[in-house]
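Figure caption, in words: inputs first, then the predicted bound structure.
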Amino acid sequence: MARSPGRAYALLLLLICFNVGSGLHLQVLSTRNENKLLPKHPHLVRQKRAWITAPVALREGEDLSKKNPIAKIHSDLAEERGLKITYKYTGKGITEPPFGIFVFNKDTGELNVTSILDREETPFFLLTGYALDARGNNVEKPLELRIKVLDINDNEPVFTQDVFVGSVEELSAAHTLVMKINATDADEPNTLNSKISYRIVSLEPAYPPVFYLNKDTGEIYTTSVTLDREVS
Ligand SMILES: *[C@@H]1O[C@H](CO)[C@@H](O)[C@H](O)[C@H]1NC(C)=O
Ligand SMILES: *[C@@H]1O[C@H](CO)[C@@H](O)[C@H](O)[C@H]1NC(C)=O
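Bound structure (2-acetamido-2-deoxy-beta-D-glucopyranose present):
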């Protein structure tokens, strides 16, 4: 669960609240604010004739209950016309497996998260929010809500094989490729959380070193020290 630096930027996604004129509104209420860069209360951004869906970002591996409700849909039209509206959400985590990740209040449109998330299991949820009248008809165009699960560095790299075997001929030239080792990491690809570097823990005999390792590629080469089977 070690936390690496440089990931605070993702939190900037959190405090966005859009108001899109008359229609179904999405409020993103998840406002944990580690950097204190963001205002305490979501502010509304008005846009004409456009649906805007703001992504919600939730970090894996932590108790999110204090962030509830994480989102809310609201229909202005219903308010204007005095209609009784029922809100509904569908999608992964609610009506598709894994079930029970989210729950909602059909009267207020509030959406809560109920579970600790695992990015390696589900990196992304796409929900659809509905505002329905008494007959179950859409009062508004259904709204797409994207929920991204933020990665933490919760996976150790693992070697792809238990044993890597290399061989090299006696008296090989310096910088001959002997072998390549390989490991994988289940954390989010192309981030520091999944970046792997290799290191030689021990080498026998240690001195003079006859091999060196490229820490980024896992390739092991001979040094300029001459390999002599009768000695090594
Ligand atoms: C969502 O969470 C809020 C805050 O904890 C709570 O007041 C509300 O009752 C919850 N709603 C549902 C549908 O669980
Ligand atoms: C390492 O192993 C993985 C899984 O077997 C494979 O997909 C990947 O291509 C390998 N990488 C290298 C650099 O050999």
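The longest strand covers residues 124-132.
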